[in-house]
Amino acid sequence: MELSxxxxxxxxxxxxxxxxxxxxxxxxxxxxxxxPASGQQILTTDLLIEGVHFDPASISPHxxxxxxxxxxxxxxxxxxxxxxxxxxxxxxxxDVEAAWVMELYAGMRDACTxxxxxxxxxxxxxxxxxxxxxxxxxEVAPGRAVTRSGARPGDQIVVTGSLGAAAGGxxxxxxxxxxxxxxxxxxxxxxxxxxxxxxVARVGEGQVLARRGATAMMDxxxxxxxxxxxxxAASGVGARLELExxxxxxxxxxxxxxxxxxxxxxxxxxxxxxxxxxxxxEGDVDRAREGLDPFGVTLTAVGTIIEGSGIVAVDADGxxxxxxxxGWDHFS
Amino acid sequence: MELSxxxxxxxxxxxxxxxxxxxxxxxxxxxxxxxPASGQQILTTDLLIEGVHFDPASISPHxxxxxxxxxxxxxxxxxxxxxxxxxxxxxxxxDVEAAWVMELYAGMRDACTxxxxxxxxxxxxxxxxxxxxxxxxxEVAPGRAVTRSGARPGDQIVVTGSLGAAAGGxxxxxxxxxxxxxxxxxxxxxxxxxxxxxxVARVGEGQVLARRGATAMMDxxxxxxxxxxxxxAASGVGARLELExxxxxxxxxxxxxxxxxxxxxxxxxxxxxxxxxxxxxEGDVDRAREGLDPFGVTLTAVGTIIEGSGIVAVDADGxxxxxxxxGWDHFS
Lengths: 332, 332
Hints:
Two copies of one chain form a homodimer. Chain A is an alpha+beta fold. Chain A contains twelve helices and 13 strands. In chain A, a hairpin with a 5-residue loop joins strand 12 and strand 13.
């Protein structure tokens, strides 16, 4: 790192230059200033840590920056809100090149452009490992935020898109060079890696689901098993999950032989898909599904909210068994 | 760390329980939801890294948590705004005890109580070093935020309180056990350590200075020399600094012999004092000073804004010399 802190801020300012609607004061002062928000404010923060969430040898700094923004935008989407602005605090090892940092910021900037929010602050520090900590503020019409706690017995459980591709991408990123080559020469290889490194936040979809009556909603960051347990715990209910109905990503199914793992297990247990998990009163699912047509995104019913607590998984033969809250745990 | 992520969140929720005015939805969902803000929104983020900003062996987790909030609140104060809510992203080594984490959150909670903001979100992750990343949102009346860029030639340069005590506290924290004992047995020892470990953000003071005509303002986190250079660069002006006028902390002066360093040099070059640096039109300083009387905080004129660029330091004998932008640089 040959740049001083002030030189780095100046370089980052150049990456982030350009018009930012609603921003009174962006990068470079003590704090950013935004025009007044309409509605309630949403606030969320999430970070990516080298060696825990990513390996700098396998993800590009551009993708890493974009993902750090996207995972936060996904949390705003899961409330049914709109993202508005982001700030980033970055820890860099001293051996990280300035060009790598510029690409990281370019990735954050591009993701902000994609989701129509403004990157208004960035703090950089040296430290023992790369950490990218992003906070996003957003807004939502008063009283319209969809929480995790509104699911009621009888509600249908739905998920957007398909699950498990990120798990496959993670497996590819951890494989030996020979096996990576094999994966990337298959039609599903790049798709899996992209799902893990370039997730998409369902912002418009979340707003539609909120308007069409979602009783509870959250994003799938830690796996359906674990996240559905959280939604049920917050709502004080249980769930019956139809394993057969879970929309396993086709690319993951295609990779079954290479993976030497059960795609369904990965789809339920891994996470990082950033699809939305929601619940709807029984009559509302079809209308919600139609609402997603313009996005080209599917909405799949995967089970039912029941009284009690915990999740019962039902397999293709109608046998049921308790489903544990397994999945991604940053302390396991 | 014997707790799972969900158990930790539950424990943190207990630490953070209690009424939080203006908070619609706090910890535990995808994102927090706040009541609509009045005025423009302020957004700032700052992090503390083990081995860079703090040594866990010398600062308590409670003080560390409080400081992580305070340094962000100080940035809001430097805009003339009011802090409203905070979120924290924490990286923990796996060997960190759950009790340590609870104390860290209790420190954040207590600082939030002191400055009347709400801690509404906390994300915890494991990693190679402890990192505490806090983001604070605040508000300010439209058009009333005080930036770094409004200083004009002829303006007086002022600072609140006194400078350099944090530098002394840092020196004590780095000293050998015998020398620490010597320092802490002197009347100034604890005062210096407290200044470094328990800084105070000048929130009310910043609002008074903003209302009483501050043309530019920022907080002194990286030292007067460096931060005044930044203010001058942002405003497109230079400065003439009267070294004799700088309010060196009495406790630092008392420690001169122990320190074996020039207190004035530490007061100008180290930072971490979180006092406010501001500029005022020539006739406005006295009124601003009177405004701080209720806080028991002094306001000292330390120089004048001039045309051009850079800082000229004038010593007791009237000799002047350029002052370099030395100070805390996270990349030096």
